[in-house]
Design goal:
The protein has 361 residues and is of the alpha+beta class. It folds into two domains: 223 residues, P-loop containing nucleotide triphosphate hydrolases (Rossmann fold, 3-Layer(aba) Sandwich); 115 residues, OB fold (Dihydrolipoamide Acetyltransferase, E2P) (Beta Barrel), CATH 2.40.50.140. The strands form four sheets. The chain has a six-stranded mixed sheet, sandwiched between helices. It has a five-stranded antiparallel sheet with strand order 13-12-11-14-20. Strands 15-19-16-17-18 form a five-stranded antiparallel sheet, with no helix packed on it. A hairpin with a 5-residue loop joins strand 12 and strand 13. The relative contact order is 0.12.
Length: 361
């Protein structure tokens, strides 16, 4: 396997910058997920690594080799796509063998590599079947196997689970994670599903408008987002973000709520470049008390969403709506008055103008 290094990579289409000075390093054997909304530049970045589109400026290295001008077939990478791209009239064995036949390897070597890959992916019993006889999950394993037999330096995966139903996606997430662990493979994985990225990757690259917003391990990105975009994108449900003005250690909003900050958070907010701040809180960092409880913000239940093991309560704070999680045993009704209590130790504060996280004090 090998490292993948991007240095100030740019891709433009006329005046549009699809990828804007992206720099990151994927370590040898790391699983890195590129995530972000549609049009953020993640698939373009993957295609630049693969050599499927021409780079505008910057450098891409695979291992110690600069590959800017190297053809895709000579980059020693293997791609796995969302549509599997299997040959419908070939058996599983022949689908796996095809890339090795193109390299003119001997029949015995091809057979050994195909059977080894099939064993790793638990598809040895499917070798004589054709793709139409396989489930979606089995077809995806075959697509992985076809990449695996090539023994590439880097695996590039473009939303490979998006065509599967919800149950199969959960199963294949576990399969891919095991595949990565067993092989020590270097994987760059594109997904719009941040849950996939959080559960599988060693590191996440969060992108928006072609710009790399944050590159870190999933836990760090979840716990310490660098700006409001990352805070609102990573996590399900998304982080609650409330805009207000800081006055004497209190955040006041035109939407009709008022939150007294702890001394530590008041110092952080007071050091902001402007008086405008955005308060961020995960659903689990807020709890509901009786209306009028000490240190609570008056609110009113808007709607209740039971999910089985947890219940999400949408609460109005003036004109703003936040999401709070409660145990399923908690009974709440729409329009019920409640007190909203924020865990000040888990509160996030962002500059209201730039959206950047305020420094810890």
């Amino acid at each position: 396997m090998a490292t993948v290094t991007l240095r100030d990579v740019v891709k433009t289409y006329g005046p549009v910058k699809a990828v804007d000075r992206v720099s990151l390093t994927v370590g040898d054997g790391e699983f890195v997920a590129l995530v972000g909304p549609s049009g953020c530049g993640k698939t373009t970045t993957l295609n630049l690594i693969a050599g499927l589109i021409e780079i505008t400026s910057g450098e891409i290295h695979i291992g110690d080799r600069l590959v800017n001008d190297v053809d895709p077939k000579d980059r020693d990478i293997a791609m796995v796509f969302q549509n599997y791209a299997l040959y419908p009239n070939k058996t599983v064995y022949k689908n796996l063998a095809f890339p090795l036949q193109m390299r003119k390897l001997g029949k015995a070597v091809i057979g050994a590599k195909v059977r080894a890959a099939a064993k790793v992916l638990d598809i040895a019993h499917l070798l004589e079947r054709r793709p139409r006889e396989l489930s979606g999950g089995q077809q995806q394993r075959v697509a992985l196997g076809r990449a695996l037999v090539r023994d590439p330096k880097v695996f590039l995966m473009d939303e490979p689970l998006s065509n599967l139903d919800a149950k199969l996606r959960v199963q294949m997430r576990a399969e891919l994670k095991r595949f990565h662990r067993d092989l020590g493979a270097t994987i760059v994985y594109v997904t719009h599903d941040q849950l996939e990225a959080v559960t599988m990757s060693d590191k996440m690259a969060v992108m928006n408008h072609g710009v790399l917003q944050q590159y870190d391990d999933p836990e760090r990105i979840f716990e310490a987002p660098v700006n409001t975009f990352v805070a609102g994108f990573v996590g399900s449900p998304a982080m609650n973000l409330l805009k207000g003005e800081i006055r004497d250690g209190t955040v006041e909003s035109a939407e009709g709520w008022r939150l007294a900050l702890s001394p530590r958070n008041a110092r952080r907010a007071g050091a902001a470049p402007s008086r405008s701040v955005t308060v961020g809180a995960r659903h689990s960092a807020i709890h509901l008390a009786e209306n009028g409880a000490a240190d609570s913000v008056p609110g009113r239940v808007y709607t209740v969403e039971p999910t089985g093991d947890i219940t999400y309560v949408h609460v109005r704070l003036g004109e703003a709506v936040i999401i709070v999680s409660v145990p399923p045993s908690r009974r709440l009704e729409p329009d019920q008055p409640v007190g909203v209590v924020f865990d000040q130790e888990r509160l996030h504060l962002f500059d209201g103008d730039s959206g950047q996280a305020l420094a810890q004090t």
